[in-house]
Write a structure and sequence with these properties.
single chain; 155 residues; alpha+beta; Thiol Ester Dehydrase, Chain A; 6 strands; 32% helix; 33% strand; hydrolase; Thioesterase; HotDog_dom_sf; Thioestr_dom; fatty acyl-CoA hydrolase activity
Length: 155
């Protein structure tokens, strides 16, 4: 199967939905760095409001969890977009309206200490109603800080 090349209109639409219309992602400062049909990547830059109450130099576990959940959703958006390349970009973007998390597991492996963090996600299975994903939260040095697995409703 040949790699899918998303149109600039689709990529910009996904970016607008993910970074601007999902307000919590805006608060987190999530920024997409790469979007492909099989893998997505984003970045969070450390800011004071993202720090845990008692750990002044560590990113809060809730930020890690929310970021990984958002990345699982983004991976599903990309996979849905790739599955329906026969549709115009605007029609594919409309498909995301019903996307929602139905299960999420986060494993915290190391403290989230750093100036910035990289988040990655991939879809393991995209069914007609449910998608399964795997996510990673890394330091900019590539060290794995947390992992996640999620299930998302896509009907």
């Amino acid at each position: 199967m040949a790699p899918v090349a998303f149109e600039p209109e689709f990529v910009e639409g996904v970016r607008e939905i993910f970074e601007q219309k999902i307000v919590f992602n805006t608060v987190l400062g999530l920024r997409i760095t790469d979007i492909a049909a099989d893998r997505v990547q984003a970045r969070i830059d450390m800011r004071p409001e993202l720090v845990g109450h008692f750990a002044y130099n560590r990113i809060h576990g809730g930020v890690i969890s929310a970021g990984l959940d958002a990345m699982g959703g983004l991976a599903v958006m990309a996979a849905i977009g790739a599955r329906h390349m026969d549709e115009p970009p605007a029609q594919r973007l409309h498909r995301f309206a019903k996307l929602g998390t139905i299960d999420l597991r986060i494993d915290y492996l190391r403290p989230g200490i750093g100036e910035a963090f990289v988040l990655e996600a991939e879809v393991l299975r995209l069914g007609s109603r449910v998608a399964s994903t795997r996510m990673a939260f890394l330091g900019t040095d590539g060290k794995l800080l947390a992992t996640g697995a999620g299930a998302y409703i896509v009907s």
